[in-house]
């Protein structure tokens, strides 16, 4: 079996100049397929609020949601590093809450690391969680849990002050002990500067090709989620169309009784049947 990816492996990949791949997954079967395809890390993102639970944003997602989906992904992924998101208000109110919730997520899912949103302001939280021996991936730039402060899903780091802040955020989370940084929704040259400013790996989403790795939401990759499609998404397959057609075929065949066929049915000895009449 291929060797399990750890946060140390990610650092070695950055040091060797090898790009890191990350995809989201939220269930056992998808995690297994991604793992078999060879993805390095699987993120159980709180984007599950959008793509699995149908919320408008990630704000309503709970720790219990993350634990249910996170555990199923861990059971499906044998090689990939599994990172589980800490949802909104599971780490912002106090350092104590943050450590307790990170501990719950790790103990109850078996994940390899947690991810939380925020830079300089979250440094004490990252420090405390890593001191509890839980690896942390930081997430900076367009952090979806802050959309109510940003006024929507808006590209970050576009002014001189905002760009400097992003680089400070990257340095602060590294100093606090983060193992890697997700950089979302910032101009590519700023993500490049942030990547050059730290030693730990950066994983971009809508942040250009100079990050040390890339992450996408798998339903976007497969064309299964069309409520909104950010500019940075690349669709690698149109599974939405394939799924809709397969569901329609199934519905048609059940209605016209061409499914199930004999090969799908269990048999029983004729004499047993005769005794029933
Ligand atoms: O929740 C998520 O899926 C994420 C990625 C978009 C980075 O945080």
What does this protein look like?
The protein is α/β, with parallel strands linked by helices and 277 residues long. 43% of the residues lie in helices and 14% in strands. It contains 12 helices and 8 strands. It has helices at residues 7-16, 28-37, 48-51, 63-76, 95-109, 123-131, 147-150, 160-176, 188-197, 218-221, 239-255, 270-274; strands at residues 20-24, 41-44, 81-85, 113-117, 136-141, 180-184, 202-205, 213-216. Strands 1-2-3-4-5-6-7-8 form an 8-stranded parallel β-barrel, surrounded by 7 helices. Helix 9 links the parallel strand 6 and strand 7 (202-205). Helix 8 packs parallel to helix 9. The N and C termini lie far apart (56 Å). It binds 3-methyl-2-oxobutanoic acid (KIV). 3-methyl-2-oxobutanoic acid is lined by residues 24, 43, 45-47, 85, 139, 182, 184, 205, 215, 217.
Key features of this structure:
277 residues, alpha/beta, eight-stranded parallel barrel, 8 strands, 43% helix, elongated, binds 3-methyl-2-oxobutanoic acid
β-sheet strand percentage:
5-15%
Main sheet: strand order: 1-2-3-4-5-6-7-8
Bound molecules: 3-methyl-2-oxobutanoic acid
Given helix and strand content, the structural type is alpha/beta
Distance between the termini: 56 Å
Main β-sheet: number of strands, strand sense, barrel status?
8 strands, parallel, barrel
């Amino acid at each position: 079996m291929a060797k399990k990816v750890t946060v140390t492996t990610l650092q070695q990949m950055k040091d060797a100049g090898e790009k890191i791949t990350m995809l989201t997954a939220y269930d056992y079967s998808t995690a297994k397929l991604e793992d078999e395809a060879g993805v390095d890390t699987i993120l159980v993102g709180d984007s599950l609020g959008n793509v699995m639970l149908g919320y408008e944003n990630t704000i309503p997602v709970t720790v219990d949601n993350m634990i249910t989906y996170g555990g199923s992904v861990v059971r499906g992924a044998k090689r990939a590093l599994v990172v589980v998101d800490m949802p909104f208000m599971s780490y912002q109110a106090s350092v104590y809450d943050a450590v307790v919730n990170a501990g719950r997520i790790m103990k109850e899912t078996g994940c390899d690391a947690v991810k939380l949103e925020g830079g300089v302001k979250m440094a004490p939280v990252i420090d405390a969680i890593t001191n509890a021996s839980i690896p942390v991936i930081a997430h900076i730039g367009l952090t979806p849990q802050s959309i109510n402060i940003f006024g929507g899903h808006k590209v970050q780091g576009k002014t001189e002050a905002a760009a400097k802040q992003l680089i400070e955020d990257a340095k602060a989370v590294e100093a606090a002990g983060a193992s890697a940084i997700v950089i979302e929704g910032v101009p590519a040259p700023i993500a490049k500067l942030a990547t050059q400013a730290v030693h730990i790996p950066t994983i971009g989403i809508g942040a250009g090709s100079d990050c040390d790795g890339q992450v996408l939401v798998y339903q976007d990759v497969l064309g299964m989620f069309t409520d909104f499609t950010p500019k940075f998404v690349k669709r690698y397959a149109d599974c939405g169309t394939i799924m809709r057609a397969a569901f329609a075929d199934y519905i048609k065949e059940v209605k016209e009784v061409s499914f199930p066929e004999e090969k799908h049915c269990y048999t029983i000895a004729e004499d047993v049947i005769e005794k029933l009449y």
